[in-house]
Write a structure and sequence with these properties.
single chain, alpha/beta, Rossmann fold, four-stranded parallel β-sheet, 17 helices, globular, binds iron/sulfur cluster, iron, metal-binding, NadA_sf, cytoplasm, transferase activity
Length: 423
């Protein structure tokens, strides 16, 4: 099966396969110099990027003009020159044209662990998005440099919660709940941030008795939090928070949503007092595209199909699916299935098409018939990878992601709590 990028280049108006934006055909550097910060074509293209979102300067023309073959030759040569001095990490959602160079491919939890598994490597080149590279910086050694090939590869969901709004929310909650623990020693509220968040928010959790979770350990982390607190403030992904808490038996009416633009998040004091999980008003625009109608159609067209979706999907989609789980869960479910199985998958298209190519013994397709990759993962292209690797060989570290100590220390506390929390 062709890569997503090849598929996109072949899409013609009026044809059977459609994409969400014709601009996906363009090289990502065409968007680096946009006058307003934007996520670029793909599922997050209509999300508003914060004004202070990192921008990527234009990379040298030699990389923008190089053919695919030349970039391939240069990246392989750079990798051979650097040897063990370099490790390249790739998230499952990254395009195939970049994943082919990764030394390790995984979900955000596995990549966080991989970042600390190679203390000998001087450079960790992270082919994923900004919060993942920050996490790698937090978990790697002080002499290691983490490099994000394109600084514009952020995450629109992570950007939906910022430190100022979360601090403001926290102050309102403290005013309402006070800070005293109850008779069993549980504090009024524990902050839990999804891995998909800035290092500043991880630091906030570290400082306020909180913790980080990923989609592969969210239930374990919520249990950890409920042992220590009467309630949880969960940010930024409302869907992961709701889906996980609901599966643990928390009733929907005890999960108010916090809209940072409204006083008390748009709730009355009673609802916040009665809350078990306060859900931040954030979402992933990739996973928001999946619908129950797509699942109904998959079941009608493929009797016996196994529908697996990522827990960032809205609750009705998770409820209508057979299973929900992290990217690694999806991968393992497919690997363990008997040959001849049919899967309809609700997650990012690059991962789904790669799984389909790797498993010809199964029928695997994406629930969403429209090709619409994660806009920010898509901003990384071999041209940027060749640029950062050759710069490193020349002694220059470009696009280094480095978290300041005042944030890194508490953020590591929250991450270490997560790594220590056992299911
Ligand atoms: P995973 O933790 O499953 O890798 O998901 C990360 C992500 O960004 C999903 O949108
Ligand atoms: Fe962020 Fe969604 Fe892309 Fe994951 S898929 S990196 S949550 S925008």
């Amino acid at each position: 099966m062709a890569s997503v990028n090849t598929t996109i280049q072949l899409i013609r108006p009026g044809g059977q396969v459609t994409s969400c934006s014709p601009a996906l055909k363009e090289a990502p550097w065409n968007f680096d110099s946009a006058p307003v910060a934007e996520y670029g074509p793909g599922s997050s293209m209509f999300d508003v990027a914060p004004v202070d979102t990192p921008r990527q300067g234009e990379i040298p023309a030699e990389y923008r003009r190089a053919s695919d073959e030349e970039l391939d030759r240069r990246i392989r040569a750079a990798k051979a020159t650097l040897g063990d001095r370099l490790v390249i990490l790739g998230h499952f959602y990254q395009r195939d044209e970049v994943i082919t160079y990764a030394d390790f491919v995984g979900d955000s939890f596995q990549l966080a662990q991989a970042a600390r598994a190679r203390p000998d490597a001087e450079a960790i080149v992270f082919c994923g998005v900004h919060f993942m590279a920050e996490t790698a910086d937090l978990l790697s050694g002080p002499s290691q440099s983490v490099i994000l090939p394109n600084l514009a590869a952020g995450c629109s969901m992570a950007d939906m919660a910022d430190i100022d709004s979360v601090t403001e929310c926290w102050e309102q909650l403290e005013e309402l709940y006070g800070t005293e623990p109850d008779a069993s020693g549980r504090v009024p509220v524990i902050p839990v941030t999804y891995m998909n968040s800035s290092a500043a928010l991880k630091g906030f959790c570290g400082e306020h008795g909180g913790i980080v979770c990923t989609s592969s350990n969210a239930a374990t982390v919520l249990e950890w939090a409920f042992e220590r607190g009467q309630r949880v403030l969960f940010f930024p992904d409302q869907h992961l928070g709701r889906n996980t808490a609901k599966a643990m038996g928390v009733p929907l009416e005890r999960m108010p949503m916090w809209n940072p633009r409204k006083p008390l998040g748009g709730n009355d004091a009673e609802a916040i007092q009665d809350a078990r999980v306060i859900l931040w008003h954030g979402f992933c625009s990739v996973h928001k595209r999946f619908t129950v109608a797509q699942i109904d159609r998959a079941r009608a067209e493929h009797p016996g199909v196994r529908v697996i979706v990522h827990p960032e999907c809205p609750m009705p989609v998770v409820d209508a699916a057979d299973e929900a789980g992290s990217t690694d869960y999806i991968k393992k479910a497919i690997e363990r299935a008997p040959a001849g199985s049919t899967f309809a998958i609700g997650t990012e298209i690059n991962m789904v098409q790669r799984l389909a190519a790797e498993h010809p013994e199964h029928t695997i397709f994406c629930l969403d018939p429209v090709v619409c990759p994660c806009s920010t993962m898509y901003r990384i292209h071999p041209g940027y990878l060749a640029w950062v690797l050759e710069a490193f060989i020349a002694g220059e570290i470009v696009n280094q992601i480095s978290v300041v100590d005042s944030v890194a220390l508490p953020a590591r506390v929250a991450l270490e709590r997560m790594l220590a929390a056992k299911p």
